[in-house]
Design brief:
153 residues, alpha+beta, three-stranded antiparallel β-sheet, 3 helices, 5 strands
Length: 153
């Protein structure tokens, strides 16, 4: 399955980056390579980092399912709810557990809609097992290296 994030024209090991800049205490603006921005932080109008992670997990799989099913029929309803419980593990570190991604998708009651609906469970499984970079990264303990670098003056 091909998604916008992992299209055939993209090398299999292409590096992705997002720049995060402070806007005020505890609040940041994340900007991707295309200049698209999202506010992240402690302000009530911003996504928290945990909410952004959950949104990324849900959106990644939503794209996997939507791109294929929309070729057959436009959904009447397409909603994905991603959630998890924040807790502190045995080392005192904050983590999420019991992460779930629930799909609620409705297609029209015609041949194309039934075909699209018939693909959903398989596509959700493929997204989980193979295609969603975000959930697979979360599930497979991926090392994160943090460094402190000198800012340019």
């Amino acid at each position: 399955m091909t998604t916008p994030d992992d299209s055939a024209s993209t090398p299999t090991s292409a590096r992705r980056e997002v720049r995060v800049e402070r806007t005020s205490t505890g609040n940041y603006l994340a900007t991707n390579a295309d200049g698209v921005q999202v506010a992240v932080g402690m302000a009530p109008e911003h996504f928290s980092p945990v909410e952004l992670l959950l949104a990324a997990v849900g959106a990644c799989s939503a794209i996997d399912v939507d791109v294929v099913t929309a070729r057959r029929a436009e959904p009447k309803t397409f909603e994905v709810v991603a959630g998890g419980e924040k807790f502190f593990d045995e080392t005192g570190g904050a983590r999420l557990r019991d992460v779930s991604v629930d799909f609620s998708i409705l297609f029209g009651d015609d041949e194309a809609g039934r075909q699209a609906a018939g693909l959903v469970e398989r596509l959700v499984r493929l997204s989980h097992d193979r295609d969603c970079t975000v959930s697979r990264t979360v599930e497979h303990e991926t090392p994160v290296v943090m460094r402190v670098t000198e800012p340019e003056r």
